[in-house]
Task: structure prediction
Amino acid sequence: VPELPDVEGFRRLLEKHGTGHRVQRVEVPDPAVLHNTNPQGLGRSLRGRRLDEPSRHGKWLRAPFGTSTVLFHFGMTGALVWVTNEEFHPHDRVCIVLDDGELRYRDQRKLKGVWLAHDDREASDIMGSLGPDALGLSRQDLGDRLGGRRGRLKAVLMDQEVIAGLGNILSDEILWQARLDPSTSSRELTSPDLDRLHRVMQRVLRESVKLGFIPPEPGWLAGVRDADPPRCPRCGYPLRSQRIAGRTSWLCPPCQLGSGDR
DNA sequence: GCTCATGTTCCCCT
DNA sequence: CAGGGGAACATGAG
Result:
């Protein structure tokens, strides 16, 4: 589930249920998701502390508890959930118990996990080099970030060092809505291409962030990805798939490849 | 048994 | 150095 809109949803959940609340205790059913700490260390750092204002950068979620900040990355299958009963889910890996409920880091595949940072420097070392957040990125910054790259547009959009927050599904969605070929050279985009890409990207992000997920609705590519033969929601033409940067890309040849073939 | 999966990282080529 | 392909990570689902 987790690309920028999903993580923004987790941030809102954390803010709504966690901010201002005190940690009673921390339980770690699966210590393997803790990357630079252990259950004891995490418990010592959080117990008795109140959550301050959580923040998000790209697909990273930061939960500051006084001088310690918990960093979450959700990989491909992670989520942050709020539970008020004791019901345990087999994929619950870390439970932060507050007075009126628990925040749980739930993740099937454990491709990423949870880190603990004690200052901004440490947090930034853990998150690595990230470009500006995709949400609210200006047209100018988009052009500047994409202009210097020689790779294919879709690979560049998914590169977190260029822009932070876009994954496979969002990138396909944005490129399809903007009628751009994922294989276009990033630095050869024309100014009108960039205008359109920027407008579409911000609209897709705004609408997805509002919901906390990419709407699998009519008129969105996300709604047809899983169809038997997926068809373009705009023109009905069968979508074509290809591998870009190790992931499956879906595109509509008539809409996105101009008049060419490919 | 096989393939594929909303992410990232590392290794090896070109 | 910049990109691309492929594998690996852990765990399913179909």
